[in-house]
């Protein structure tokens, strides 16, 4: 039996043209200041050089492919850097951002479509634009779109997003849930807690909104991939199950036990701990976990296959996570 290709579903592209587009616009300075407060000065000093040395792999498809060869990765699902969300932007700017992001990501992947698949962006801050943005991404040949864990003033459970969820389900688009920033703000502005604690927190909160609000009941065909292994939620889902059973206010929005919805979602394998990865596979199912590296950032892994092998899964589960599940998902797309 032939083994599937190795597929990394969590890899990013940097699009300088987007930053050139928004440079100097009202709102950008405030957004940067908020980001700086949330991360803290020590993190900002590290971030610049870290990104700078990774520019070739983030922007040049040839450098990307060479790095993939070194890692033993056959296919990447490439999404824009979350720094390109720009959820502060007005309607006109937001449309320019998503169009440019979708077209530039598609162009980055176009040279080697057998190895690079792409995801676009949608402006969560303008719900009325979401379906148009999704359709635009799909028209570029992209497999779906990437979103953050929330937009200013809106959670993913907001009723205004219902047309977007319906559209994603109808079209079979992949929705990659990748947080950017954490609303715990300055409480996490030291020791890079904004990322190490903030990102898994945001994943858990966003997924909980999708579960408890009934979004996954209303749209069971959604193809949502949660970055960072879904954060804290999969390994602490027992508390959510208890609340659903014990309290009428907790269980009023979703029809089933919260843990059952984990098997309706997909999760990348980027949890940085083989025991946590084994638990993720146990609670979500081996068919719902996909290889992810966060290529090429420092909070990712340089060797995602070795990280997966360290979990000591069965051969069948190992190959499913390594590439079989993602191959099937992308083939459906």
From TrEMBL:
Residues 7-331 form the Amidohydrolase-related domain. GO terms for biological process: secondary metabolic process. It comes from the Bacteria. One of its GO terms (cellular component) is cytoplasm. One of its GO terms (molecular function) is hydrolase activity. Pfam families: Amidohydro_2. Transmembrane segments: none annotated. InterPro entries: ACMSD, Amidohydro-rel, Metal_Hydrolase. Keywords: Lyase. This is Amidohydrolase. It comes from Streptomyces finlayi.
